[in-house]
Design a protein that fits this description.
Blueprint: H1 3-8, H2 12-24, E1 34-40, E2 43-48, E3 53-55, H3 56-63, H4 68-87, E4 101-103
Antiparallel strand pairs: 1-2, 3-4
Length: about 110
């Protein structure tokens, strides 16, 4: 959370911390685990699980359209993760290929 954004909206810090608390409740193979919140130079940041791999956007840019079995795998993993999140009342506000990570063995996060 950039300092300018936090300064422009005094409630931004509290919302940021609330989002972390909500996200930390989510435990699923296809959801990146969030660990903690910190601050450096006035900027708030999240620490989270490291996923070695690439974004779905980068994969699509490099390879083009995925074969049907890969699309089905991505869709199934994504819907399972969203089902868990929605079950906890968490909605992802920026769902797009750039925010989906493809790790080892094709595991989507």
């Amino acid at each position: 959370l950039r300092p300018a954004l936090a300064a422009a909206d005094p409630r931004a810090r509290a919302r940021f911390a609330d989002e972390l608390r909500l996200a930390r409740r989510l435990t699923h193979r296809n959801i990146v685990r969030l660990h903690d919140i910190g601050e450096d130079g006035g900027a708030l940041f999240l620490t989270m699980e490291y996923v070695e791999g690439t974004s779905l956007a980068a994969l699509l840019a490099a390879c083009g359209a995925l074969p049907a079995p890969a699309v089905l795998s991505v869709a199934k993993q994504l819907t399972r993760a969203l089902d868990v999140a929605h079950g906890q009342g968490v909605l992802h506000g920026d769902l797009k290929p750039a925010n989906l990570l493809v790790g080892a063995g094709g595991v989507l996060k």
